[in-house]
Amino acid sequence: MRLFHGSNTEIRTIDFSKCKPYKDFGQGFYLTALKDQADKMAKRVTRIYGGFPCITEFEFDESVWKDAALSCRLFTAPNIEWAMFVIHNRSRSYTDLANTECNLDCKYDLVAGPVVNDDLALLFRQFEGGLIDADALIHEMKYKKLTNQYSFHFEKAVRYLQKAGVQYE
User: Fold this and answer.
1) What CA–CA distance (Å, rounded) separates 140 from 67?
2) CA 33 to chain centre
3) Nearest to residue 31, comparing CAs of 142, 163, 124, 141?
4) Strand 72-74, strand 161-168: pairing
5) CB atoms within 10 A of CB 143
6) Residue 61 DSSP class
7) 18 to each of 59, 64, 122, how far by Cα in Å?
8) What string of pLDDT tens digits covers the 169 residues of the chain?
9) Among residues 99, 106, 102, which one has the least CA distance to residue 27?
10) Number of domains forming the structure of the chain
């Protein structure tokens, strides 16, 4: 399977120290199976930091999901479990690191699932603020068009990626 990373520079090596915390699945190196999504991210990052839009392509060995030596989490669809996982990872005040419903401590080597777009972020804020309940959140998520993301958190998971190319926009 082909995965893409959009940035303002080519990814020559994956450097976890450059990855930002409090992302959907925790601090990690993020890719997507959607080239268009990576292109949009590359253009966004370039607008903010300068450089040139660049998509680095990787071949992803999906046998990673069967590697018992790795701790992987796969969300196949938006649901309350996925929503709480994202909410906890994005929170700067969440402290229950032992909870399996967060990855702030990078307990998972690889996590994949839907991306929280602006529409969902609004729903999540409404849910966290008590304006809607879990049932309303789940109901509303069904009507949102979502993209995907794969987040790698340790070198042992990155072994399942092989750089396959680079495209400058």
Assistant:
1) 35
2) 11
3) 163
4) unpaired
5) 7
6) -
7) 22, 24, 27
8) 999 999 999 999 999 999 999 999 999 999 999 999 999 999 999 999 999 999 999 999 999 999 999 999 999 989 999 999 999 999 999 999 999 999 999 999 999 999 988 778 888 989 999 999 999 998 888 888 889 999 999 999 999 999 999 999 7
9) 106
10) 1
What secondary structure, in 3-state letters, does the chain show? CEEEEEECCCCCCCCHHHCCCCCCCCCCEEEECCHHHHHHHHHHHHHHHCCCCEEEEEEECHHHHHCCCCCEEECCCCCHHHHHHHHHHHCCCCCCCCCCCCCCCCCCCEEEEECCCHHHHHHHHHHHCCCCCHHHHHHHHCCCCCCEEEEECCHHHHCCEEEEEEEEC
How many residues make up the chain in this entry?
Answer: 169
- Amino acid at the residue 116: V
Compute CA 53 distance to the chain's CA centroid, rounded to the nearest angstrom: 19
Among all chains, which residue has been given the structure tokens 């300068």? 50
**What is the 8-class DSSP label of residue 20?**
P
Task: Supply the range of the domain harboring residue 88.
Answer: 2-168
